[in-house]
Amino acid sequence: MKSKEKGINTLCTCVLTVLSLLYIFPVVMILFNSLKKENSITTDGAFTLPTAETFDGLTNYINAIQAQGFLKSLGYSLFITISSVAAILLFCSMTAWYLARVKSVFSTLFYYLCVFSMVVPFQMVMYTLSSTADQLKLNTPWNIWIIYLGFGAGLAVFMITGFMKSIPLEIEEAAMIDGCTPLRTFFSIVMPMLKPTLVSVGILEAMWVWNDYLLPTLVLDIKSYKTIPMLIQYFRGSYGRVEMGPMMASIMLTIIPIIVVYLAGQKHIIKGVAAGAVKG
Prior knowledge:
The chain is mostly helical and 280 residues long. It contains 13 helices and no strands. Helix content is 74%, strand content 0%.
């Protein structure tokens, strides 16, 4: 029996290793092409490795940063990601606390509406969203976080509510007896205990907002504001020509930060997802 289980584990390891390599392969090829000269990418092909003749060092990275307003777009993406994730964590954690502690028809209905929002395709609402965002003046990087809050609330409320149900109510009752107000109880007692789930939700939401292309393209004014994914899509060099080298470099500069964030917090993601899924 043990030999059979060992064989199954070995097979699963091999399959997952192959899948991991398939996922990593495009990133590796983008990295190689970002280090090659411009003409070698188009003439020699994108699947060739850099050689002594085609290696161009960090020239493409320097050109990517200096051209097309890369730093400006990076600032927009950073602000949108940080503000959106902060709003999602704050408001959704408070909502989840209410839903987990207040038993009523309204709280139950609201919880299932949040769960239902996760399965609604974005394409169903994107045209209405664009018009509504223009009417409510949500079409700038400074207030688009409100839209992200609405779309990210479903997953956040679902995960945090599941974890919240595992926290003993007696802890909050003891804080109330000691004179804590509801807000102080939440921020001083409840929120610190939500750290595993908040970290996992924050990382997942940050990956989504940082890499999102469709929503900013629909809402923001492309001529005035471009996030990093939008900048890569409209990357142009002189005379409107697409410069593949700087484009590959800009893609790598976009990928690296979110990969670092994910690798640093992957253990928290696993703990948070498991805690939110098992409890309640």
